[in-house]
Amino acid sequence: MPDPENALEDKPKFIVCKEKDGMFQIFLNRPPMNAFNADMVEEINRALGELLYRTDLKLLIFLAAGKNFCGGVSPEDFTDDRSYQLIEALGRMYEQLQNLNIPILTVAQGMTLGAGFELVVFSDLAIAAESTKFGFPEIRMGLFPAIGCNILPRCMPPKRAAELILTGELISAKDAEQYGLLNMVVPDDKLSEQAGLIVGKLLQFSAPVLQMTKKALIEAQGKPMDQAIPAVESIYLNELLGLDDVQEGVKAFMEKRKPVWKNQ
Q1: Is residue 260 part of a domain?
Q2: Phi and psi dihedrals of 114, rounded to 5?
Q3: What is the rounded CA–CA span in Å between residue 207 and residue 197?
Q4: What angle do CA 224, 103, 214 make, to 5 degrees?
């Protein structure tokens, strides 16, 4: 994966953004723990706001500079009124991520706690180095993970979710994989290579088709079948089939050749 040091010159203070070949990368860049503070989350929100109407992007990737992905939120932001700003900014971040149809991949390493763990759980795809540690330690500070309480029970057995949140205990990458929170765990020295392989798989497809597919997945999530089927059918018939890339994909399949996507 590209190094954050080679990113665009005009960059915010706590994140590094890089765009290449249909993917948009956001590196968390607040060492040593890359913990979220209000300013860092606002920088992410500004970056996400610029992606909202992009139909040419195939993948959004969250990575981190340094040894740790994210140590959660900065404790100092809970010592004054900035706690309100931070929680509100995190809420807007997840609202924006929910409204983006771009598939999201998170690549985690080192300590991945609290808000960092929430980002992993929320992503469509997530991989981690085998030495990565995950957890929600907020209970030890007299807090609870606001987003984690919402999304974690939706992604794993509720009793296991409650155990993680109520005890604040850390789990290994292998445990996270077994709970269904990761797609893959790889040796630490293979993380970048494996991330590149996953990225390569997605970049071979049409951007609007990928986005329509994610939209269908989100539309169906949590709905009873009698509501989910017509909702997804509407996207398929009224939006997907109108794309030029659909016609090209079907034609290329029949002609036994590689499609030439126009991303439209």
Answers
A1: no
A2: 50, -120
A3: 18
A4: 30
Q: How far apart are CA 116 and CA 119, in angstroms?
A: 5
Would residue 8 count as lying in a domain? yes
Write phi, then psi, for 91 (nearest 5 degrees). Answer: -60, -45
The predicted model scores a pTM of 0.93
| Residues 184 and 63 reside in one and the same domain | yes
The helix/strand/coil state of 134 is: strand
For 19: left if phi > 0, alpha if psi spans -120 to 50, otherwise beta; the answer is beta
Tell me, yes or no, whether 111 and 186 share the same domain: yes
Nearest C-alpha neighbor of 248 from the set 209, 218, 210: 209
Could you tell me if 100 and 216 lie in one domain?
no
The whole-angstrom separation of Cα 152 and Cα 165 is 9
Residues 228 and 160 in one domain: no
pLDDT digits (tens, 9 = 90+) for 107-150: 999 999 999 999 999 999 999 999 999 999 999 999 999 999 99
- At a CB cut-off of 8 Å and minimum separation 6, what does 127 contact? 105, 106, 107, 108, 182, 183, 184, 185, 186, 191, 194, 195, 198
Is the same domain home to 43 and 147?
yes
